Amino acid sequence: MINQLLFTIAALQARAIAQSCPSLTATYPTPSVAAGYEARLIAQGLQKPRGIIFDNKNNLLVVERNVGITSFQVDSSGSCVSLKNKKTVVGDGTLNHGIELTDDGKTLYASSLESVLKYAYDSNSQTINGQGEVIINELTTQGTVTRTLLLARKAGNKLLVSRGGDENIDLSSVDVNGGEAQIRIFDPTKGKIAYTAGTTLGWGLRNAVGVAENPHDGGIWSAENNADNIERDGFNIHENNPAEELNYHGKLSDANNPLLNKNYGYPLCYGVWNATDIPSAGRLQVGQQFAITNENSTNQDAFCNTDRQAPRLVFQPHTSPLDMKFDGKGENLYLSLHGSWNKQDPVGYSVSVIEFGADGQPLEASTSTNALTPILSNSNTTGCPGFCFRPAGLAWDRNGRLYMTSDNTGEIYVITKSGGKALDESRPAESAASTSSSYSAVGLFVGVVASAFAYFL
């Protein structure tokens, strides 16, 4: 009798918990999650969601292409998260990727192909006051369209704006004054200025979509999407070269930053991933740079490795890193890898992590090909890019959970450690007051069942 009752109680409790934590179902194969992690699909039906950020009230703001900026309230307990009360914050369909927000929740920044705009924002109502103010313009290019934004907190909230090249191999970017393929620094409190009026942090960056500040020491990092269909000495080498790059730009707070205004190679020099596929590679190795000029390319390799700033790490070609976020201690850097579009065997399509040391640098050497550890991946990449998720934006909520947008599927995932524990343990744990009433109902149910069980004993 008691065994049967125990079985019934367990079944009812499991059913109650499952019903209290609804889970959406993807139309593609179930993603792979690394041991020690959990991932849950929590939103569908968005219009190409890209950049995301949480405000100081823990509302999630999302850039949806052709829509603008929308917001969600988060209803959660551990990894059991749902989004509710969606509303439009900024109805501007030209906004397409970048988003930033001051810590006090009062100033919102967003980017379009042409401009960076500033809005007066109210996090209590998730609304803006008036129209957006253009603070940076003259950003249009014919090729890359993203304009990543980053407020560098360790440098007094300087605004970094990343702009890609005008085409796959943009030869005009050899001139720093043109403004293509660069990251520039701005004072966001000033009025409207042209992009080329900003201070150059780094150039020779084909498309540095991912930009992040290490909270440990204020170091600035960028993740560069490298060129496609590269040739060297008349041979197509694009399958395994050039590498995607993680570049270090020093600390903005350092008045003598030796990396300020450094050139990182593009469009003349590119990172090595597989030297055996590069004609006349000589002694080139992983993490160094090679030239692609048709004449005497091997002679130009020396120029690339002495006159250009080398990447700190390299990643497999075509993985396409789009966003990256450090945890609160700067010990781990999480990257969204959007995935390949013109590689025979699809690669990327994951959220991965890089370990950092106390010196603010990656633990892996610059010659490593194993710096990335996937934590959320597509289980069957043969269907990519059409039949899988493609990671785009990343954001932390105040409880240490990591959120990821998938632009091609219009979805949002949340990632935690097993058991719903914070992925970033340096952030405050979820308070009892923030726990959803629906999950409290589970506790009530369990209590009632326990009482019944005690009665029968």
Automatic annotation (TrEMBL):
Keywords: Signal
The keyword Signal is annotated on this UniProt entry: yes
Organism phylogeny: Eukaryota, Fungi, Dikarya, Ascomycota, Pezizomycotina
Pfam families: TrAA12 (PF22807)
Superkingdom: Eukaryota
Signal sequence annotation: 1-18
Domain Pyrroloquinoline quinone-dependent pyranose dehydrogenase beta-propeller: 31-417
Name of the featured protein: Soluble quino protein glucose dehydrogenase
